[in-house]
Write a structure and sequence with these properties.
434 Repressor (Amino-terminal Domain); 2 domains; 7 helices; elongated
Length: about 120
């Protein structure tokens, strides 16, 4: 699943006609690692955006776009589902999660972490 950062990186590369390998070389990482960051399988290191900004002399606006995408990616979660029922459960939870108050969230956490189901 592409993260916000992955989408921004891919857009950045495509707009500049860069191959994954070329961008990875320019910022001092492997193309496999860059691909993993783009696809959300790996988290970007703390100096990642700085490396890109320095290597490509990005404008303040371009820097901000990548930084915001990196920050958004820190709050994203993805899961692989084994069955359709798993997917249904996770989607129902995700849909309702924003409406849960702090007490309800704590109760769910207690059930999932402290008690054996």
């Amino acid at each position: 699943m592409l993260t916000a950062l992955g989408k921004a990186l891919r857009k950045f590369r495509i707009e500049r006609d860069l191959l994954l390998r070329n961008m990875a070389d320019a910022i001092g990482i492997s193309s496999a690692f860059l691909s993993a960051v783009e696809t959300g399988r790996k988290k970007a290191p703390s100096d990642f955006i700085g490396r890109i900004c320095k290597a490509y002399n990005l404008s303040k606006e371009e820097q901000q776009i990548l930084q915001e995408a990196a920050e958004d990616s820190l709050t994203e979660v993805s899961m692989k589902m084994r069955t359709g029922k798993d997917r249904e459960l996770v989607l129902a939870f995700a849909k309702r999660f924003p409406d849960l108050n702090e007490k309800e969230r704590q109760k769910l956490l207690d059930v999932l972490v402290k008690e054996k189901i």
